[in-house]
Amino acid sequence: MNYSITLIALVAALGWAAVPAHEPDPTPAAEKLRAARDSRAWALQQFQRNECRPGETAIWVADKEADCLREVRP
After folding, report:
1. pLDDT tens-digit profile of 24-71?
2. What is the separation, in whole angstroms, between the first and last Cα of the chain?
3. Among 21, 41, 37, CA closest to 72
C-alpha cells in the first residue's frame, strides 16, 4: 500500500517538474515589442475616435513593431 502512494507521489512530482513555468521574456526587446503592440491598440482607439490621421498612426506603429522584431529575432 505504501508503495502505491509513493509511486503516485513520485509520478505527480515528476509530471509537475516536467512542465516548464511560462514566464514572460524579461529582455528589453520583448518589453519594447509589448509596448509596440500596446501602441497598436492605442492607434486603433485613436482611429475609432477620429482624433488623428489613421494612415500616419498605422505606419508609425508598424515601424515600431518592426524595429522591436529585429531586436528580438536578429
Report:
1. 556 777 787 778 777 777 777 766 666 556 566 677 777 777 877 777
2. 56
3. 37
At residue 21, the 3 state secondary structure works out as: coil
DSSP state for residue 50 in the 8-state scheme: T
Distance CA 73, CA 19 (A): 25
Q: Which three cell numbers stand for residue 55?
A: 494612415
Q: How many CA atoms lie within 13 A of 29 on its CB side?
A: 9
Domains of the chain, by residue range, sit at: 25-74
- CA 69 remoteness from chain centre: 12
CB 39 within 8 A of CB 61: yes
Q: How far apart are CA 62 and CA 34, in angstroms?
A: 13
What is the pTM (predicted TM-score) of this model?
A: 0.29
6's grid cell: 509513493
